[in-house]
Amino acid sequence: MSKVGIPKGMRDFSPVEVSRRNYIFDTIRMAFKKYGFQAIETPTMENLQTLTGKYGSEGDQLIFKVLNSGDYLAKSSEKYLNEKNSKALTAEISEKALRYDLTVPFARYVVMHQNDITFPFKRYQIQPVWRADRPQKGRYREFYQCDADIVGSDSLINEVELILLYDEVFSKLGLTDFDIKINNRKILSGIAEIIGKPNMIIDLTVAIDKIDKIGLDGVEKELLEKGFTADDLSKLNPVLHLSGGNEDKIKSLKVILKDSEIGLKGIEELSHIFFLLEKCKIKKANVKFDLTLARGLNYYTGAIFEVCTNQVQMGSIGGGGRYDDLTGLFGLKDLTGVGISFGADRIYDVLEELNLFTEKIGSNLSVLITHFDQTAFDYGFEILQTIRAANIHSEIYPSMVKMQKQMKYANDRGAENVLVIGEEEIKTGLLTLKNMASGIQEKYTVQDLILKLS
C-alpha cells in the first residue's frame, strides 16, 4: 500500500484553520471594499510565455510549469532529450504554468479588457499562487495573495492610500508593532548611476534586497561576483549606512544624489508621500524610509513597500510598489500602476503565534441542540428550523445517545452553546441554554433565544 501524503510546501486545512483564514480574508476584503476596490479573478494557469521574463532569472526558476496534454514528448526534439537540455526541452513540452503571483496576470487582464475598464481602475484579488520555492517557516509552495492595485493614475495619493490600507488591516487584525518600510526604485537607480554602474541596477537591487538575510558582507560579496569593483562598494557603503529618521535620510541623500536627475526625482516623490501622510491619522504602523529595501522584482519603477512585524520573527507580511509600464509587456504602453499584496499565510502564522485568534473565530457552530429521547428530538428539530431561519449557525445531534456523548461532541465541535431539550422544556416552553465557556445555564423562550444568539 502506497504511503498517503501531499507534496512538500502544500497543506490541508482543518475547519478551525479555514475559519481563521476566512477571518483574515474577510478583514482584508472589507478594507479593500471600503477603499473603493473592485474584485476580479484570473485563471489558475496562464500561458507560460505570459509569466516568463517578468520576475527576473531567479523568479523564473520558481515557476511551476504544466506539461502539455497527451503524448507531450512525441513532438519534442530528440537532440534536447539526448543533451538533457531541460531549459530548451521545457519550451517544447510545456505551454502553460501555474501563476507565480497575481500582478502579472492582472496586467494581462487589463490589456485584454482595456475597452471594458473605467480608469483609474482599482482592483482587488484574493486567490492562491504557486512557487517552486524551498519550503520553510512562513514560506510555502502554494499560498494565498491578497492584492490591491490602482492602474491609470500617477497620483502619489495612491501610494498614501495603500499605506493607510496596510495600517487599517493590520491594526484590525490586532498587530500593535509593525513597520511599513518604503523606498523608491528611482533612488536606487540614482545610486547605481553615481557609482558608475547605471546598467547594473537589477544586479544591485537583487543583492541589496537580500541584506536582511545575508548581511552587508554577503551583499558586497555578491556584488563583487556580479562585476562591481571595490571602488564601487566604497561609494555604496555610506549610502547603506545612512542613519536617523526619515527626514534626516532624505536630507543626506539629496547631497549624495545631487548629480543624479533620476535619484532626485525619487527623493521628490518620497518626500511628497511623507508630506501627504502627515495629513492622515496612522493607527499603529511605523512608516519608515529604508534605503536597503529593494524588492528584486524587475517591474517596480517608483515607490516600493514592505511590511514587517516586530512582534514575531517572520519575513515580510506584505509588499508592493509602483510600476510605470507593466502592461507595456503585453502591448499597452504608458499605463502606470501601483499595488500591494498581503501575505495571508504568513499573517496567519503571525496571528497564531501571538494568540490573536479568539475562540469564536475558530467556531462556526453557535448552538448544538441536545435531547433525552425521541420526543425531545422531534421538539428540538422544529426549534432548529426556527432558529436557522434567523441565520443562527446551529445543528441537532442526529442520534439517540446518552447526554454525556452529546456534550462531548459539542465540546469537540467547538460549539459556543448547547440547548438542552427534555420533558420540562417541552412542557414549559422555556429552553435551557448552556454556555460552553462559562458553564452558565439560563432559560429562554424561543424568541428570546433568537435575540440572545443573533
Task: List the defining traits of the structure above.
alpha+beta, Rossmann fold, 2 domains, 8-stranded mixed beta sheet, 5-stranded mixed beta sheet, 16 strands, globular
Describe the structure.
- It is a single chain.
- The chain has an eight-stranded mixed β-sheet with strand order 1-5-6-11-10-9-7-8.
- The chain folds into two domains: 15-63 and 100-353, Bira Bifunctional Protein, Domain 2 (BirA Bifunctional Protein, domain 2); 363-453, Rossmann fold (3-Layer(aba) Sandwich).
- The chain has helices spanning 15-34, 48-51, 56-60, 78-83, 86-93, 103-112, 157-172, 185-194, 201-208, 211-226, 230-240, 246-256, 261-277, 344-353, 359-362, 374-389, 403-413, 423-428, 446-453; strands spanning 38-39, 45-47, 65-66, 96-98, 121-130, 142-151, 178-184, 286-289, 303-309, 318-323, 337-343, 367-371, 394-396, 417-421, 431-435, 441-444.
- The chain starts with 14 loop residues before the first helix and ends with a helix.
- It is globular.
- With 454 residues, the protein is α+β, with helices and mostly antiparallel strands.
Concise description?
Strand 15 and strand 16 (441-444) form a beta hairpin. Helix 8 (185-194) packs antiparallel against helix 13 (261-277).
